[in-house]
User: What shape does this take?
Amino acid sequence: MSDFPASIGVDQSVCSVGTDIWDAHTHLAGLPGNTPEERVERLLECAARLNITHVCIFMGTRWQYDPTPEELREANREVRQAVERYPKQVFGFVYVNPNHLQAALDEMRRHLQDGPMVGVKLWVARRCCDAALDPIVEFARAQRAVILQHTYIKSTGNLPGESTPQDLACLARRHPNAAFIAAHSGGGNWELGLRAFRAVPNIYAELSGSDPTAGFTEAAVRLLGADHVIFGSDAPGRSFATQVGKVLGAAIDEDARRLILGRNLQALLAPILKAKGLDG
Assistant: This one.
């Protein structure tokens, strides 16, 4: 996506909320640059225009729906390179595939337990309600790591292994002491997806990926409470500007805006950042 930088050219003054923004959902794929370091540098340069000061990244520069152990190792190696370039601004999540459990646990040991990463990323290889995910969740919980799970409800039908919000609610109820971020907050049908997270207090709805539809952010706050809603952009697949606009343009109070744009994610990551000495 070579035109990514031009697509988010917004004067920083639009971010009048007066707080640093933390983005729970970004990628290296689609950014210009020959190395992970070059790509993340461009990502941070563009993020700074909207006062986005910290980003979470995952999945490397090439994506596969059902990655092999070798593909997982390469993706996580690329993300780790970016993290090590900017360790106080860029937080890596280990990308794992429940269909290769031993490889997943090995990657989590390498990059989460013994490395700088602070979270776990699950995508579409296997629906997350499956018991095969339980060892991954328990390992993450023991490391105080948050788990970010892709969730979607597609009008055309989900991919075979693609999780719905209902799947994530099932997993989170089995692991009440683990923390989960629901990427896309139910995706296409957010009116239905958000409702799946009510009464599941260890799920935090993340706003990334959809168009800035009126009422989306307001519904999340109304149904879940502002302390359970997190900003994410899905950049560069989506522009920072449209995703920030969903929060700045929402009919919510300033305290709720500040929670969503940074404070909730800061609180979720605080234990593991402190443990790794990244909270300074």
About this structure: The domain at 4-275 is CATH 3.20.20.140 (TIM Barrel). The chain is about 40% helix and 15% strand.
